[in-house]
Amino acid sequence: MPSPIPPTRLLPKGLFPSAAGGACSSPLGPRTARGGAAPRCCSSFILWEQLRPVEAVGSGGFGSVFRAEYLGKTVALKRVKKSSKNRLASRQSFWAELNVAHLHHNNIVRVIAASTSAPGGSEADSSIGTILMEFVGNRNLQQIIYGTSEPLREERCLRYSADIARGLRYLHAHSLVHLDIKPANVLVSSEEVCKIADFGCSVKLDRARETCADHPHVSLVGGTYTHRAPELLKGEAVSPKADIFSFGITLWQLLTREPPYAGERQRVLYAIVAQDLRPSLRDSAVFGSELGGRLRALLGACWSADALRRPSASELLELLQQLL
After folding, report:
1. Where ATP is bound, by residue (predicted)?
2. Hey, what CATH topology would domain 48-134 get?
3. CA gap 250, 141 in Å, rounded
4. Are 67 and 54 within 8 A, CB to CB?
5. Residue 82 marked as a ligand binder
6. Residue 309 has what DSSP assignment?
7. Count of alpha carbons within 13 angstroms of residue 94, beta-carbon side
8. How many other CB atoms are there within 10 angstroms of residue 285's CB atom?
9. Nearest Cα to 172, choosing from 223, 82, 112, 246?
10. Cα 295 from Cα 316, distance rounded (Å)
């Protein structure tokens, strides 16, 4: 399970010069650093009187996201709510979001501050925690692909995909696997830069092994079944190659603007694992050209049933740059 993080990693001095630390209770246990155990309970301090939600911009299984104003800056405010059906899962989702709190990359949505406390009243009773993040905008790839008539030419698709691959390369270099790469979790800024968001399913890997077999919650909580790698559907160990599989589905959606599968959920899951079901590559308008043939080969590599045969994020980015 993900680990709590020191408040000094949450609060950049330029934006939050007066922040102070406060205690919170984490289900995730201590973390080893420089040979010693880090404190079990860590959090940043949010100045609630300075936080003003402006408008709702989205919601998901474990929370809602708002555009907000904080200390004169526009931020994204995520409230992680308690789940009456699965409280452990919602707690894990909150702490998994903080796996990226110490990371800073242009293609990753940056965490600014987080707290397990909340203002009083019913909101506090229903909330597990609050996360303040960089505000990227209101658009994600899901909306661009399926909700607009904007042209998505190959060059634009490849630029978006290269951004995602850069983000994955950075995450994997820090032994972090996202586990829910899909168009809805890729935000697009006003400068047309893609940023990976929503780390509620993410896990930290053992650097020595680069796999993670001791996360039983992974198969229960995370991810979207249409984008999940077959080894995860079978309950096998997590590795960075699971994100490469999900990337392949996302790239296919960018290129075709179609849903990846049709049919009943359980039948699709069985076919992915037992029959190597993958989205169709027969669209001649997309895959019939020379570039389309190279994209077809790239997707086939990302979708390999054998995770070891999939490219790494670094190799993937190199291939995409060659296509660009």
Report:
1. 82
2. Phosphorylase Kinase; domain 1 (3.30.200)
3. 9
4. yes
5. yes
6. G
7. 32
8. 9
9. 246
10. 12
Query: Which CATH number is associated with domain 139-322?
Result: 1.10.510.10
CA distance 302 to 278: 11
CB atoms within 10 A of CB 270: 13
At 54, the amino acid letter reads V
Could you tell me if 30 and 5 are in contact, meaning their C-beta atoms sit under 8 angstroms apart? no
Taking the domains of the chain in order of start, what are their residue ranges?
48-134, 139-322
Q: 257 and 285 in contact (C-beta within 8 Å)?
A: no
For 258, phi and psi rounded to 5 degrees?
Answer: -120, 155
**What does the alpha-carbon distance between residue 8 and residue 42 come to, in Å, rounded to a whole number?**
10
- Kind and range of the H or E element at 52? strand 51-60
**Residue 206 designated active-site:** no
SS3 assignment for 137-177: CCCEHHHHHHCCCCCCCHHHHHHHHHHHHHHHHHHHHCCEE
The whole model's pTM is what?
Answer: 0.83
Q: What is the CB neighbour count within 10 angstroms for residue 291?
A: 14
What is the number of residues in the chain?
Answer: 324
Q: Which of 163, 180, 198, 243 is catalytic?
A: 180
Residue whose pair of structure tokens reads 């960089």 in the numeric block: 134
The H or E element that residue 112 is part of is: strand 111-115
- The answer to whether 92 touches 221, Cβ cutoff 8 Å, is yes
State the Cα–Cα distance between residues 171 and 106, nearest whole angstrom.
Answer: 12
